[in-house]
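> run fold Argininosuccinate lyase
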Amino acid sequence: MDSQENHKLWGGRFAGKTDPQLEKLNCSLDLDKRMYAEDIEGSKAYAQSLKHINLLTESEANSICEGLDKIKIEWGTNEFVIKPGEEDIHTTNERRLKEIIGEPATKLHVGRSRNDQVTTDMKLWLKSNLKNLQEKVCELIEVIVKRSLKEIDVIMPGYTHLQRAQPVRWSHYLLSHAWSLKNDCERLENNFGLLDVLPLGSGALAGNPLNIDRKKLAENLNFAQITENSMQAVSDRDFIADFLFWASMVGIHLSRLAEDLIIFSSKEFEFVTIAESYSTGSSLMPQKRNPDSLELIRGIGGSLFGQCCSFMMVLKSLPSTYNKDLQSDKEAMFTTFDKLQSILEVTTGTVRTLKVNDAKCKSALSFEMLATDIAYYLVRKSVPFRTAHHIAGKVVAEAEKKLVNICDLTLEELKEISPQFEIDIGRVWNYENSIEQYQAIGGTARSSVLDQIYKLDSWLEQKYHRNCTKES
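> ok
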C-alpha cells in the first residue's frame, strides 16, 4: 500500500487503493478544516483524560498538547501542508502530530472515533460562532430601535393585503421587524442548551471502554452536560437541524423586511431611498438605481430554507448511529452560517443608511383609511360595533358614489345615513388623532411606540450590554 493510503485511519483492513472518484467524494477536508481549532481543543482535552487513566504518561500528554499547539499555529498562519489522501481534519491533524512528536501521537485515538470526534468539533464550532450571529441580529435590532426613536413622528399608511389599511407611525412599522428579530435571539438562546451536551467519549457507537471521566472531559471543554446514550450521541444532528431552522427563520424575517423596502423604495411609493452604497445600476438603462442589496437578501433568505429542507431529508430515513450521509452536515452548517452572516451585515447596512421620505409617506395617506375610525366614533356613542361597521361602510359607499373623500360629505349627508353623526365627526378627519387613539400596549400611538423602544432598549442592555437610547 502506498504512502497516500497509509494516511487513512482505517487503512489496515484494505489491500487495494480507493477509487479516485470515491476518494474525492469522501474527502471533507475542504470543509471541515474550518474546525481545526476545535479539533485540536477536543484532542488536547482527550489527551488529559487518557493521562488521568494512565494510558498516557504525563510526558506523553504534554508532548501531545505541545504538538497540537504547534499545529494550531501552523493552521492559523496558513503554513499547514495538507497531503494527498487525507480525508478530514481529524486524519490530517493526527498525521501532522505524528510528524512532530513521533510515536506518542499514535496513542491519542484510543477509545475515540471520528464519529464522536466530529460531533464534538461541530458543537464546539457552533458554540464559538453562533454568538457572532447573535451579535449581528442584535446590531440590526439596535439600528432599528435608534431609527424608530429618531423618526417617531413620521406617519405612513399601514397595509394589509398590500392595500392601504390604517395610518401608522413609520417607527411602529420598523419595530414590527425588530420584535421578530428579538424572538430570533431568544429562540437561539434555547438552542444553546442543546449544544451544551458533550458527545465525546461515545466511541464509534458502543461507548468508551477505558472508563474515562466524561464529566471531567465536559468540564474541560466547557460543556454543561454529557450525552447519556452513545448510540444517540454519534448520530445526533438535531443541533444542526435546529441551527438550520433558526437560520431559516431569521432569513425569512430578513426577506420580508427586504421585500417591504423594495416596494417602499419604488417610484410608485418612494417612502424610502436606498443609499447608493447599497444599490446598483443597469448596464443598459442609465437612470436605473436598483435595490440589489435587498433582492440578494430576499433570494438568499430562501436558499437558507433550502439548506434546512435538504438536510432534514438526509436525516429522515437514516438507520441508527453514524452513516456517511451525515457528512453533508458540515456543508449545510458552514454554508448557512456564511450566508446568514452576510445578509445580516448587508441588511444592517441598508437599514442604517436608507433615507425615509417623510413627505411621500404623508402624501400617501388617504381619508378612506379613516373608515375604521368612523366605526369607532359611533361605538363611542353606544352603537354596537357590527352596526357601526355597517354604517361606516355606507359612508364609504356614499363618498365613492359622489366621487368625493369621506371627509367631504356634509353633516346632513352623514345624518341621512345615521342620526348618530354630530358636528364632532370633524375630529375624525385627522391622521394624528387616528394614530393617537391606539394607546394600548402594542399600538401605534406615540406613547405605545416609545414603550416598545424602551422595552427593546432595556432588553438589549440587559442581555447584550447595548444601549440604543443613551446618546439620544
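Residues 1-5 have pLDDT under 50 and may be disordered.
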